[in-house]
Amino acid sequence: MKKSLLILSIVLSSILFTQCGADKRAINKKLTEMASTLNESTPVMLNNFTRFDDATVTEENVFQYNYTVLNIQNPDSLIKEVEISLIENIKHEFNTNPQLRFFKENNVSIEYVYNDENRELIRRIQIDSSNYK
Fold this sequence. Notes:
Shape: globular
Order of helices and strands: HEEEHHEE
Number of domains: 1
Number of helices: 3
Strand order of the largest sheet: 1-2-3-4-5
Helix content: 40-55%
Number of strands: 5
CATH class: Alpha Beta
Distance between the termini: 45 Å
CATH topology: GMP Synthetase, Chain A, domain 3
CATH architecture: 2-Layer Sandwich
């Protein structure tokens, strides 16, 4: 009886592990497709100081938006100025835009990566899925 329970628990555990891995891969595939679609129109200047370079997806299914801050002496100050409003706008967008439902339903974290003209990291803003639910 103990052997049967042990075998059953091993089988159930492996099925759950395989299913979770398959779900994670399916989510990663969908996110990668979304990033590829966005990247068809990059790079693009968003304003006088910010260029959207591309979107990428990490192995942990974090969707990254990569930006370069240009034409400014102190790029960190620009990001500091807009960081709070940026986070609030992102939360609002995720709560009102039906096209972003996939992110909410699959608990996808989003990361905004800002680099300077020399590709040095200025700031990384990560928004966990719990922040926009």
